């Protein structure tokens, strides 16, 4: 995956991106550094190729967009910050947008 043009959301079938040329521009969040929480994010992504990455690799190279988080997972009204224990859920994509 090349990062030159910005980051894409790694949830299966999502076309959000930090770069409007590569998808629908929206807010993307880094994976957590914590190994256990990182694992939960990977499982939510539904992508087998992420399962053998380390938490730091995921943190540095992969992003999940805001569409996969419930409203209560956000720290602020603008939805630019997540709660410390937030975990994405790919099934809720676009529901509240
Ligand atoms: Zn997404």
UniProtKB/TrEMBL annotation:
This is THAP-type domain-containing protein. The keyword DNA-binding applies. The lineage of its organism: Eukaryota, Metazoa, Ecdysozoa, Arthropoda, Hexapoda. The keyword Transmembrane does not apply. PROSITE patterns: ZF_THAP (PS50950). SUPFAM superfamilies: Glucocorticoid receptor-like (DNA-binding domain). Gene3D superfamilies: THAP domain. Keywords: DNA-binding, Metal-binding, Zinc, Zinc-finger. InterPro entries: THAP1/10, THAP_Znf, THAP_Znf_sf. Residues 1-91 form the THAP-type domain. GO terms for molecular function: sequence-specific DNA binding; zinc ion binding. It comes from the Eukaryota. It comes from Cardiocondyla obscurior.
């Amino acid at each position: 995956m090349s990062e030159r043009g910005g980051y894409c959301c790694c949830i299966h079938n999502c076309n959000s991106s930090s770069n409007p040329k590569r998808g629908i521009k929206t807010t993307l969040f880094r994976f957590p550094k914590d190994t256990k929480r990182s694992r939960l994010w990977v499982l939510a992504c539904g992508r087998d190729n992420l399962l053998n990455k380390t938490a730091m690799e995921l943190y540095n190279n992969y992003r999940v967009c805001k569409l996969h988080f419930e409203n209560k997972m956000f720290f602020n009204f603008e939805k630019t910050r997540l709660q410390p224990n937030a975990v994405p859920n790919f099934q809720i994509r676009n529901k509240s947008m």
